[in-house]
Amino acid sequence: MATFLYRLGSRAYRTAWPFLAFWLVLLIAVGTLAGVFGKTPSSNFSMPGLDSVTTMEKMQERFDDAEDSTTAPTGSIVVQAPEGRTLVDPEVNAEVNALLDDVRATGVLADPETIVDPVLGEQGLQAQMVPQLQAQGVPEEKIAADVAAVSPLSPDETTGIVTVRFDADEVGDIPAEDIQAVTDVLDAQDESALTVAYNGNAFSAAAAEINLTSELVGLLVAAVVLLVTFGSVVAAGMPLISAIIGVGVGVLGISLATVFTDAVNDITPVLASMIGLAVGIDYALFIVSRFRNELIKASGANDLEPKELAQKLRGMSVDTRAHAMGMAVGTAGSAVVFAGLTVLIALAALSIINIPFLTAMALGAAATVAIAVLVALTLLPALLGLLSVRVFAGRVPGVKAPDPEDEHPTMGLRWVRRIRHRPVLHLVAGVVVLVLLALPAVNMRLAMPTDGTASPDTPPRVAYEMTEDAFGAGRNAPMIAVVDAVDLPDEQRPAAFGAATQEFLGVDGVANAQVVGTTENFDTAQILITPEFGATDERTSDTLDRLRDAAPGFADETGATYGVTGVTPIFDDISQRLQDVLLPYIAIVLVLAFVLLLLVFRSIWVPLIAALGFGLSVVATFGVTVAIFQEGWFGLIDDPQPLLSFLPIMLIGLVFGLAMDYQLFLVTRMREGWASGKTAGNATANGFKHGARVVTAAALIMISVFAAFMLQEMVFIKTMGFALAIAVFFDAFIVRMMIIPATMFLLGERAWWLPAWLDKIVPRVDVEGEGIRHLTVEDGQEPGREPAAAR
């Protein structure tokens, strides 16, 4: 592979335009197709096989008008009268109706004539429900409770809910301009006496739009780090350009994928851009840094400032520079390929969990990483070849960019010498710190994103809180029990439905239960269950468990069966499924890390401590994230919420690849020194010296890119950005730069021990490009070209 990459790098450097044209045409083509055919990503997080999903499917089979509550193109408009007034007041009611007239006038809603103000809706409900329930002999107290549970008007008549349905089959099919037309009308009410907010599937999807602020901030910080690393404006810009192009192709490709699958949700492009931008910059950084080293070697000097290097470049032949580029791609590029593969494998492994939306997110991020690798290997050398001798131009005043190949002690060398002097102290300190930080993780709670977890002061969150205050917390967390009485005689079915209602009312945590629909032949009923608590309240999950626990006894007593579905049960089941697979996935990733590093380093101890170190950094990340975002420690977050259900498993998949990147770029140089005859201790110190500067720059870039996503409005994106940033910090600076070298010093020569029988069967992987070190400038010339000396 190293030889192939050497040829690829030198060729791309010499003949830049074909490579540049390929990526430019691809970017334009994918962007055009995505713009013409791409759809709005789905906000559906459902997955097959869950009890709630199976029940939802049964309900849709039995009831013609039933639909998936997670994808229905509906929303709610919540209106509140001015303080001291009610919606029944004629002036206030007139203002509400004027608002609804404007909403109907948008022409984007299905059946706009059915949209009525809450007061009229309450009157219609009373006229319909009360006589029916009285005829059935339902007590007046129960009638009042049933009406209140579904009424669009709050008991104090100050707040009302208006349900609207967009003219589309599913929420993902609603044109963005249609949602914008309605929200523009509603937002214009800010100056009126009414308080107006909106939530639900349609409006929550619109509120989840991603702005580019985070990417721009991340790029700005990355640019500063690159300027310090290279001391040149032009060289610093190369990783940024290649990363932007890679992310552009990847994210546009994800948009185009919405044409073929509805599994792509609205978080998929966010994760893809987050990881793609970070690894794209890092991979390019590794190659440009190695290219600089190779040029310095070719100049015959130990170290050169950017200005001096630029002068030397003018005296180098194209063949010499192309050879240096080939060596950089063949060595650092080989490591980039392997590092990219670790990320791809970790992300692709998420598909074995068999959760469609999670698989789509993982594969979308993996595809973007794969593109980042290809861009770093082909587009980047072409860009450097196009710039030719100007690649290290634009010197930054006052910035010295020393090369680790020189003989002067670097900061990294001074740090590793300190660890070598007291390895036990640094090892114990690193482990103890990470273990202590991990302790809050035992209280971790997971939940799917709802309007109740939206950012404070956003319309979905305001509408959620208005509904909770006026109607009770359970109004935001309705459940539907589908009671199946197919196997019962016709005359026993009504009694079974009544028994189910009484069963549910007796469950702790249920505020109301009532039959809201039956099939024509009366073999199935829908029973609306209103819990006492909100959608993300742990007590609601407990209530759901109690409802399901009662199902076997109910079946034994009545012969009928039931299942519970709705948005809240579906999201609760998803969270539980993700929590159940978390530990097995961690085990899979740790075993995978061990096997991959065994192939690279041909050692038992190095992979073992690398995998265990990764585990420590992950659990510490969970602990800190839970403490800050869920428990609200230190008051840094004024709105503590449960963690996003798929954050832990996605975090593991992403951080695994990044951790292996740092392990690879640090320890390969250690092994190279040991294999060339250095003692284990000297090899560790020297390898750390060579890799520390680039890995530090790469980690700082990763941290800045991830942390910048905390500027997004969506709480779960903030949390994801923080968790990824802190995970990189822990893994790069505590595990890779303290625990790993300390352990290597303690192990000494045993660090590179591999049983003889295993040495025979483990294939050899040339990550450091040992197979191309014998190549000369002449080897990198294109067939048929004259030697450089002859020209």
UniProtKB/TrEMBL annotation:
Keyword terms: Cell membrane, Membrane, Transmembrane, Transmembrane helix
Superkingdom classification of source: Bacteria
Chain ranges of the SSD domain: 216-386
Subcellular location: Cell membrane
Gene3D superfamilies per the UniProt record, alphabetical: Multidrug efflux transporter AcrB transmembrane domain (1.20.1640.10)
SUPFAM superfamilies on file: Multidrug efflux transporter AcrB transmembrane domain
Membrane topology: Multi-pass membrane protein
TM segment ranges: 216-236, 267-288, 324-353, 359-387, 424-442, 582-601, 608-629, 649-670, 691-710, 722-747
Pfam families associated with the record: MMPL (PF03176)
Any GO CC annotation of this UniProt entry: plasma membrane
InterPro entries: MMPL_dom, Mycobact_MmpL, SSD
Family listed: Belongs to the resistance-nodulation-cell division (RND) (TC 2.A.6) family. MmpL subfamily.
Full protein name: RND superfamily drug exporter
UniProt source species: Corynebacterium maris DSM 45190
